[in-house]
Each structure stands twice: as C-alpha cells, then as structure tokens.
Amino acid sequence: MGVLLAASACTVASATAQAAGAGRRCTKVAFEFKAPGQLASEAVLAGANQVAAAYGFCSPSYRAPPTAVDAMEQVAAIKADVKAGDKVVLLSADDPFLPGPALRAAMKAGVKVVTFGSGADVPGARDFFVQDVAYNTLAQVVVNAVVEAEGPQAELGVMTMTPDALPQVSWLGAVQSYAETHHLTVKTVEWLPFASPLTSVEDMVRTYPGLRAVLALDEAAIAGAAQAVTDLHRAGKLAVFGIGDPAPLRRFFANGSLRALFGWDEVAEGELLICLAKLAYEGEVHPGGAFSCHHGPEGSWAVTAKDNPGTGATRGTVIFSQPLEFTPENYKSYGF
What we know:
Shape: elongated
CATH topology of the largest domain: Rossmann fold
Number of strands: 14
CATH superfamily of the largest domain: Response regulator
Radius of gyration: 20 Å
Largest sheet: 6 strands, parallel
CATH architecture of the largest domain: 3-Layer(aba) Sandwich
CATH class of the largest domain: Alpha Beta
Helix content: 25-40%
Oligomer: single chain
Number of domains: 2
Structural class: alpha/beta
C-alpha cells in the first residue's frame, strides 16, 4: 500500500486533477492537516482521492505548506478555502481553540466542517468530528496486550512527548482507569516530557526495577523509548508498545525493541471522511443518526447525539474504527 508522497507533490497533483476536471461539475473540498507531509497525512489524502470522484467531489485541495503547520497558518488556510469556494473543509487542527472563529465564519457562509484526529474537536465550530478509535477501546486493547505478553504482574510505564494534546490526555486517563479497574496489579507510571528518552527510560528502570513494558502515546515517544531499549540492550526484557503508525518505526520492529503498535487504517479513514463530507454537504446525516458508505470502507457508523464520557465522544462524533494492531508479523503490509 504505497502512499509515500511529498506534500508539495500532492498539491501539484491535486491542482492538476482539478484543472483537468474544470470542464465538468464537481464540488470542491479541502483538507487541512495538523502534520502535513507525514506518511499518515498522505495516506488519508490518498484514500480521499480514491473515492472523491465517486462522490461528486473535485480532487481534494491541500493548501497547507509541506512543513509543520501552526494554528495561525491553519486559520489563514481555512479562510483561503472559503474564499476559493470549497464547500467542505476537513480539518485536523493544530490547536483545538484558535481555529474556532474561522470555522464558525466558514459555517455561517454555508461551508460544512468535518474535523478529525488530534486536537480537532473544536466545540461549536464543526458539524462533525471523526474520532479515530474510541479512547476507552484503545486503552483496553493496549493494556490487554501488555498483560498477555508480560503477565498480570507486569508494571507498565507510560511515556508521551505531547502530554497536553487531547488524544494523549484521553488515552492516558483511559489506560489508567482500565488498568485500575480490570488489572489491579498493573502499575501505570506517567512520564511527562523528557529531554532525553534514554535518560528517562534509564530512570524508569532504576525507579521501577520490575518494569516489563513501556507504553508510548505518540510517535516521538515511541521512537525514543524503542531507541533507548535498543541502546540499553534490553530488547526482549523491556517491551515497547505504542499508539501510532508502523512505517516510521519499522527499524524498531525489525530489531525486536518494539512489540506492537495500535492504530487505524489511515487510507480507509480518508475514504470515510469523503463519504461523510458528501452526506454532510447534502444534509443527509445528523447527530443521533447513522450512515453507511457506497464507496470505500464497508459498514455503518453512528453519530453521537450527546457527549459520551466512556468513549470520549462528544455530540456529532463518528468513531471510525476498532483498533488495528501492527505487529512484527504484519507491519510491512502497511505504508503509513
């Protein structure tokens, strides 16, 4: 499933496709990513492009620069999308609050807003939010995997480079709650931002000599923890589990320091986003309802009518999928 594309190449390809389709009627739709140029973003865009024409959309535009986006750049991009005549904006927000006024202005102008992924649930400033996986479900499968691999007496350390990001806060809370409720002997230790992953892992091992597993909640923490395990020659003794995509971390699967990752199919999520964008644009989906897609992923999805503390879903949320497990046996099958 090869999706390795430069962000600038996507922009050119998108512009070329729209120019080629200028002679036919299609609805304009725009993506704005929190982290453009990454394999995950490109996979979502690839999935969207696969089904866009089938839903009557032009090839999705992508105006964000090929480097890291900040919140103010996203605000400018949203305003540019509205000015360009895009009817749906799909946003993975860099900040959960700063884009709010621009999104509300877009909605007032008749633009549908679908947010997705990290930090994207902007209260009152979107029509729908696609949550990748229910936070409690993801926590359960990760904790269960640690217990299955290391036993019910295992001590689990938790690391994140972005402790204030909404998914990390929600995942950590769900992991702690599930561990305490269902596996009382699993000790969860939160390790906040660190200057040196190696030093942090060494400190964790020194403080908790019975530590058998580390759960890393973002890509930087996964890479840091796995590299530290490698440098300490503790592969096979200290297992790293993570929440993330496999392609950027293949070397750690290969050397045995990374036991498993949990995530979702980024390409299929891109297809779902286009399906939902079409239904939102035509007014055929509402909170409290459900929908299925004629193209892309099979199945049906519910739209939450009210906040659900268990799953972390707020009103208008669509939970995309069950967790997908990436292991040393299957990670090569995925290109994101």
